[in-house]
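Let us practice reading a record.
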Amino acid sequence: MINPIWLDTFITLVETGNFTRTAEQRFMTQPGVSQHLKKLEEACLCELVVRLGKGIQLTEQGQRVYHYAKEQQEKEQDFIASLKFDAPFEGKCVVACSGAIAQRVYPALLALQKQHSALNIHVEVAPRRTILSGIANNTLELGIVTNQPESEDIHSEYLGEEALGLILPRSLPDALAAQVPGLSENAQGFISDSDSDSDSDSVAKVASVSGKAKSKTDDGRTLKGVIKHLGLINHPDAMHYLQRYFNDCGEAELANVNPNKLPHAGYINQLSQILLPVSEGLGYTVLPTSTLDFVSFADKLTVYKAKNEVTEPLYSVQTPHSALPARYQAVKQAITQVLG
């Protein structure tokens, strides 16, 4: 690598055309200027100038070195200027989050980009552990995760709550109706009336997406039995969601169920497709209830109405060691308005 100090001295020499003026501008002695020139010529393995009395004339190689030195000088100046750049509505913003969160916040971020066309919005769908690792390793600047991380390497801010739902097919298949004791072939939904008897804890209470009740069940049809017969439509977050749901829903029959031992009916890692097999009666799953707003077949799905609402807290995460660029403030505000 050519010493940049020699190059700077050479630029001044070429532009002043004089050793004396170069020494004055560089706050050097004339022998010091001559020494820099000599070292530069040795590094380039060629003669760069021809001395003409008090002046100089560039050789062809000297002209090339001068243009190279000017390019390097300009690149350095541009680079230094870029470090000071922090426009509030210009530049690339990367937000990492789950697929369910991306569905909710992406339209708002696109609206922000439409309003400020110099913004460049990137939404990266990733699992929680990948997001936290990216923040800790400084490969990501902003992420959204469920549950507050316990790490000094990550700064978090509470955003809001995300509701989780046990999602079932609106209509049970006949094969399931025949397998579950006490389930008549014509009874297609489950929900217990508000005046049901004391055994209602073991009765499945399912509300449709629209919130309307369906036909009354009998005590023989428990929620645990239904999900075992249907089978889980598994996905990357299913085990985490199931455990959270079983712990917090308030249904005694689910409190001691091990999600890892439940039968599966399929697997898919594309959020937009997870509910499709459920809508066809092929299984059940647990997802944020907001996902129902983004499928065209929501009328074929129903959400179990548990005793307790089940939610997960949402947090924005970033490195604690430095402030985000100014352009991220508008992005965070848009996200907070959607999730808060």
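A brief commentary: Residues 60-83 form the longest helix (24 residues).
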